[in-house]
Backbone:
């Protein structure tokens, strides 16, 4: 499998793993309100967590965007490092073979 | 300005990039962790008490009230006015008591003494007792942090 | 130029006293084979990653959690509402537990199917089975700690199951519950297991497991071992570690994203006197066992249905533990049968789990 195909596969995997997010952008708080329990009082006694207000929600969205950006950059840099180290390995291997 | 030699090798550059971004990644988790471990102080903005509990206080007597998780001390002065302090010693946080015969606040931990206005007079305390502002609003005694409107 | 010398000086100062450079040399010389099944080599460290996250988030949660009957539920409620970002930390802890067990199962199955447990790696497998049991116990004990109706009922059912074992069953149940019934004592006991007793045992077994792996090196799939040609190998440090870092980064990203968008909720505190709530079920990793107990009729011939089911499970578990000794001729028919059983087990476990949810 070529490197490009691997990259595409990885991207598709991540999108797939997050597909449920794309369909349900609501945070758990709003989703819970749609699911009405059989007993109303019990539903209200449940503590449903989530960001309080627009400031926290935005903060979280920004953090997650930054998180994935940092991961993408790190994966890119790591791939460069891997290429470099593999290249060095080949060189050492070949020079040993010559001996 | 063109340099004759690179400042660093490709290897150093790449290592720096990796280390830097890894550091930034880890640091971004540090903020929520620290926020969790150090929750904000639990001191209230104001405490509202029913005035009826305090209006019959004799001069030169005190009553304790709750100021968040610390004790507050309400003192009725000789001129029948009230003063409120945070009853925590400014030395090492022990709770202080009021000795009416001596007209002094006393901290038993390291023998700290304050006068009847909370000013430190003897022993290790470095500062006077913290004052709280109070006002009587209708039926309530409203105690606020000094400086808060 | 000066900086480099300072680093070297510190390193040689430490090495003179600790011999630490031997460790680094070992890591550089350790080799990871590269072949079409190499991807499974990442599963072990993935488990370690999630366990590490459990420890860190666990440390944080234990700062605020109260393991008593009166305060357990309200302390979790406090973590979720008052403590800054507490709901995220709890969510990460809850999701990381599931992720860890997913990877435990994947790791176990990959070793089973590639027969990594062949001689001389039998002990590695056996210590691994203990680690599996400990991980499941971590999940089971942790599940009770929020002390809501669902977790209370799940614990009542779960601790009742060993009772069906003849002779010792009653004592196992009493040991787990701290008495005849599930009470506040059970909660405190489970907390003790979860944060103190189980971690110590897990770390001890993990040390054994990891030591054996380092001593014996990475296993090869059967067909590759028998080939004449040498398999391509990567040094652990730095080549394999950089690849592992990529896997870890993606896993952390997925974990955190899922935790933020799907945090667990908290029901009100459990009522010991109330009837069992509707739809009680254990955590997903126990569903297939739960379903197995459900389908067994109350009486089979002269035996109690539950007892038979539990004994079957224990028998299966024992065979599983001794698998390397049972499958001592992996290349022959017996070996092929054990691989088929692995696939059958996957189908069985998934099927039973899905069935239990219908």
Residues:
């Amino acid at each position: 499998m070529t490197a490009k195909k691997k990259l595409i596969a990885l991207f598709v995997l991540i999108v797939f793993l997050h597909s449920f997010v794309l369909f349900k952008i609501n945070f758990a708080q709003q989703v819970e309100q749609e699911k009405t329990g059989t007993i109303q009082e019990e539903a209200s006694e449940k503590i449903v967590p989530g960001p309080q207000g627009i400031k926290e929600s935005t903060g979280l969205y920004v953090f997650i965007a930054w998180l994935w950006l940092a991961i993408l950059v790190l994966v890119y840099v790591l791939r460069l490092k891997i290429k470099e180290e593999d290249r060095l390995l080949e060189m050492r291997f070949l020079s040993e073979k010559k001996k | 300005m063109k340099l004759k030699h690179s400042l660093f090798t490709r290897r150093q550059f790449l290592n720096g990039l990796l280390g830097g971004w890894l550091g930034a990644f880890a640091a971004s988790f540090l903020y929520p962790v620290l926020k969790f471990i150090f929750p904000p102080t639990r001191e209230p903005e104001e405490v509202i008490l029913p005035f009826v509990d305090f209006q019959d206080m004799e001069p030169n007597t005190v009553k304790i009230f709750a100021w968040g998780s610390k004790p507050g001390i309400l003192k009725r002065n000789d001129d029948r006015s009230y003063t409120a302090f945070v009853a925590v010693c400014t030395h090492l946080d022990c709770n202080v008591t009021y000795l009416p015969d001596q007209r002094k606040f006393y901290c038993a931990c390291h023998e700290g003494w304050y006068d009847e206005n909370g000013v430190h007079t003897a022993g290790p305390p470095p500062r006077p007792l913290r004052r709280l502002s109070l006002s009587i609003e209708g039926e309530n005694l409203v105690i606020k942090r000094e400086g808060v409107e | 130029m000066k900086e480099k010398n300072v680093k070297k000086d510190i390193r040689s100062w430490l090495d003179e006293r600790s011999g630490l450079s031997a460790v680094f040399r070992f890591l550089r010389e350790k080799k990871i084979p590269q072949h079409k099944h190499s991807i499974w080599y990442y599963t072990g460290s993935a488990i370690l990653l999630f366990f590490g996250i459990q420890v860190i988030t666990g440390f944080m949660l234990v700062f605020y959690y109260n393991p008593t009957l009166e305060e357990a539920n309200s302390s979790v409620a406090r973590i979720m509402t008052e403590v800054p970002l507490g709901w995220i930390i709890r969510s990460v802890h809850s999701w990381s537990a599931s992720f860890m067990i997913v990877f435990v199962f994947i790791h176990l199955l990959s070793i089973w199917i590639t027969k990594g447990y062949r001689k001389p790696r039998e002990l590695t497998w056996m210590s691994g089975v203990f680690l599996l049991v400990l991980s499941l116990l971590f999940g089971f004990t942790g599940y009770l700690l929020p002390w809501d109706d669902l977790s209370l009922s799940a614990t009542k059912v779960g601790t009742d199951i060993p009772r069906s074992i003849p002779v010792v069953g009653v004592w196992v149940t009493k040991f787990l519950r701290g008495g005849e019934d599930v009470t506040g004592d059970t909660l405190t006991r489970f907390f003790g297991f979860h944060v103190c007793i189980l971690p110590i045992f897990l770390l001890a077994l993990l040390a054994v497991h990891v030591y054996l792996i380092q001593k014996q090196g990475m296993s090869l799939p059967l067909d590759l071992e028998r080939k004449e040609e040498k398999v391509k190998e990567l040094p652990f440090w730095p080549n394999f570690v950089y690849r592992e870092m990529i896997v870890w980064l993606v896993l952390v990203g997925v974990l955190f994203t899922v935790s933020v968008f799907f945090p667990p909720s908290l029901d009100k505190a459990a009522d010991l006197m109330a009837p069992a709530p509707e739809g009680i079920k254990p955590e997903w990793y126990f569903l297939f066992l739960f379903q197995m107990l459900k389908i067994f009729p109350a009486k089979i011939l002269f035996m109690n249905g539950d007892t038979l089911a539990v004994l079957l499970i224990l028998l299966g578990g024992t065979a599983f533990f001794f698998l390397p000794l049972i499958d001592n001729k992996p290349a022959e028919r017996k070996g092929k049968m054990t691989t088929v059983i692995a696939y059958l087990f996957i189908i069985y476990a998934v099927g039973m789990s899905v069935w239990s949810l219908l």
Q: What stands out?
A: Chain C touches chain A at residues 77, 80-81, 87, 90-91, 234-235, 238-239, 242-243, 245-246, 249-250, 252-254, 256-257, 260-268, 278 (CB under 8 Å). Chain C has a mean pLDDT of 91. Residues 184-216 of chain C form the longest helix (33 residues). Residues 28-275 of chain C form a domain with the Cytochrome Bc1 Complex; Chain C fold (CATH 1.20.810.10).
